[in-house]
Amino acid sequence: MHYLDANATEPLRPAARAAVLAALELTGNPSSVHGAGRAARRVVEAARISLALCFGGRPEDLVFTSGATEANALAIHALGGGKDRAGRRVIVSATEHDAVLAAAPDAMVLPVNRDGVAELDVLARLLTDGGPALVCLMLANNETGTLQPIAEAASLCRRHGAWLHVDAVQAAGRIPVDLAALGAHSLALSSHKLGGPMGAGALLLAPEVSAVNALIRGGGQERGRRGGTPPVPAIAGFAAATSTDSPKLAAASTDPTEPAAASTDPTKLAHLRDAIERIAIDAGAVVCSGGAPRLANTTCLALPGVRADAQVIALDLEGIAVSAGAACSSGKVTSSHVLAAMGLGALAGQAIRVSLPWNATAADVDAFAAAYPRMAARLRVALASRAA
Ligand code: PLP
Q1: Residue 346 neighbours by CB under 8 Å, 6+ apart
Q2: pLDDT band at 213; cut points 50, 70, 90
Q3: Cα–Cα dist 369/294, whole Å
Q4: Is 349 in contact with 305 (CB distance < 8 Å)?
Q5: Ligand 1 centre and the CA of 305: distance in Å?
Q6: What domains appear along the chain, each with residue ranges and CATH number?
Q7: What is the DSSP letter of 92?
Q8: Helix (H, G, I), strand (E, B) or coil at 223
Q9: Atom 7 (ligand 1): residue with closest C-alpha?
Q10: Which protein residues are within 6 Å of ligand 1, measured from CB?
Q11: Is the pLDDT of residue 255 over 50?
Q12: Cα–Cα–Cα angle for 347, 351, 353, nearest 5°?
């Protein structure tokens, strides 16, 4: 199997696996006062320091969650229209992940251009009219890899007294992500999207965001900001997965199985991604968001006239794992809201996402080169015979 679906979940990094296995040996609950509890707590607190340092925040401002769906929901609840708050109005970009869109169903929608980049002049107008706002703008899009101008959006928000929440899930581990340098008010992160295990995520808050309205209260863990026993092994693996990604921490990494250059070299991934795009274009595909600054590992390829789910299934049969921007449930294909927001019309139901994992190789590209043109030709023939 050639796994080219890293934006769904990255393969576990060796350093993360080792940290999870070590933490599984611990028995204590981090809230317990005895030695076993304190040992578990040390793991959680070391991870908190390491992750906060990696992503440009303070350890006391990092709240562990179950993943980024919860981190986004907490940010919107805590900083925006949460029930217990006076309520900032929420503005979301049209291409946010469902984790954000579903947490703010009444939000105003910020449009994007044909490459998926948010229209900041429209944001300026929205911020000028109306009361205080919480703006949600993702750093990198999960379907296209498009990078948003976060630093510019942050200064615009600050000029208008608005808060900016950034879903940094797909960017973290792939490009440098630093909350303070971006000037945003919060970042959502997910362990399994950067090579850690599933089951952990974090909301990193800027120092000025002191009061947080908890979504889950429970036992008062995470300084009352998120109740529930933290998943110690997942948190240990989350922090270990970032250790070779952070320039600040790479120097401290002693893991010989995962040299930083091999795991994170964006030039290598861009080279492989460009090769995949050339193969797809030669077979008739259109690259979505090709004109925007993008993540090096991601490409979104539309094949005019051919349903996305048919492409995904055909490639799976050839041993290649990719995903569709368009979701398919109970036989019904729905279009990608991201590509639809970019004005791509019918192509929104005809695009697949190829997202290279940190350990992708030239062999993956060779397999794609063999399978994609065959898949495209076969499905086009099927399409033509149905039309005839
Ligand atoms: N935000 C983005 C951009 C994502 O791609 C995803 C997962 O696909 C999420 C949030 C949700 O992350 P998690 O799986 O940790 O809940």
Answers
A1: 304
A2: confident
A3: 22
A4: no
A5: 29
A6: 2-8+264-387 (3.90.1150.10), 14-244 (3.40.640.10)
A7: E
A8: helix
A9: 8
A10: 67-69, 72, 97, 99, 138, 142, 167, 169-170, 190, 201
A11: no
A12: 150
Q: How many CB atoms lie within 10 A of CB 248?
A: 13
d(CA 80, CA 136) in angstroms, rounded, equals 10
What is the distance between the alpha carbons of residues 302 and 344, in angstroms, rounded to a whole number? 10
Q: What is the mean pLDDT of residues 220-226?
A: 93
pLDDT in tens, 154-201: 999 999 999 999 999 999 999 999 999 999 999 999 999 999 999 999
State mean pLDDT over 227-253.
76
Ramachandran class of 289: left when φ > 0, alpha when ψ lies in -120 to 50, beta otherwise: left
What local confidence, expressed as pLDDT, does residue 327 receive? 57
- pLDDT value at 250 more than 70: no
Locate the ligand 1 atom nearest the alpha carbon of residue 193 and give its number.
15
User: Token pair of 20, please?
Assistant: 């999870």
Expressed in angstroms and rounded, the spacing between residue 69 Cα and the centre of ligand 1 is: 6
328 part of the active site: yes
Which helix (H) or strand (E) element contains residue 181? helix 179-182
Q: Closest by alpha carbon to 16, among 177, 257, 364? A: 257
Task: Read off the tokens for 237.
Answer: 């693996």
| Residue reference for tokens 């040299």 | 259
The one catalytic residue in 54, 288, 300, 328 is 328
Phi-psi region of 293 (alpha: psi -120 to 50; beta: other; left: phi over 0): beta
State the distance from the centre of ligand 1 to the C-alpha of 193, rounded, in angstroms.
8
